[in-house]
Amino acid sequence: MKKIAVVAANGKAGKLIVKEAIDRGMDVTAFVRGENQTVAEKAVVRDIMDLTAEDLAGFDVVVDAFGAWTPETLPQHSTTLAHLCDCVAGTDVRLLVVGGAGSLYVNPEHTACVADGPDFPDAFKPLAAAMAKALEELRARDDVAWTYISPAGDFQAEGERTGAYILGGEELTLNEAGESVISYADYAIAMVDEIESGDHIRQRISVVRK
């Protein structure tokens, strides 16, 4: 049985990842800042920056479901991810990151990203930039078995769980309907599939509804 730690588990993505993993028989511990709002029976109440290597030792996989949205907290995408990397560096513990879509490439040369496009909302550009910076810093870590999973462009918190998705890579992938969309529930399926397979170590992958 795989032992999974989900950090920032009380978030919308975190709660669904916890549930998906438990439903598949995994041993899940939710790491939260306040009262545990997940279905996990095991919970550790601690700020992400207070976690230590000892806290995360013994897990097979750590899922980073952290999110920050306000201008003053956006830099925490980098600081929290770097801290988690330091906690698992040089170990066999895998680190899976709930990523963003803004940094997905839109050309084969990988010189233009979704966030560079004229239709990308200005309101989301600071968030996309902060998450892209954290990803670039993660790419430099050769001491961590990380996997970064970007959702589709339209990431729907209340979307339905279809159970079907297309696995993509570094480039924005569209489904047969020409859409880039996925629900949080289907994203959680893809995340737990990657937890089970471990097929994309030190890679960024992406998912879109089939």
UniProtKB/TrEMBL annotation:
InterPro entries linked to this entry: NAD(P)-bd_dom, NAD(P)-bd_dom_sf, Polyketide_Oxido-like
Transmembrane segments: none
GO MF annotation terms: oxidoreductase activity, acting on the CH-NH group of donors, NAD or NADP as acceptor
Origin organism lineage: Bacteria, Bacillati, Actinomycetota, Coriobacteriia, Eggerthellales
Protein species of origin: Slackia heliotrinireducens (strain ATCC 29202 / DSM 20476 / NCTC 11029 / RHS 1)
Alphabetized CDD domains for the sequence: BVR-B_like_SDR_a (cd05244)
Protein name: Putative NADH-flavin reductase
SUPFAM superfamilies named in the record: NAD(P)-binding Rossmann-fold domains
UniProt cross-references to PANTHER family, sorted A to Z: FLAVIN REDUCTASE (NADPH)
Pfam families to which the protein is assigned, alphabetical: NAD_binding_10 (PF13460)
Residues in NAD(P)-binding domain copies: 9-193
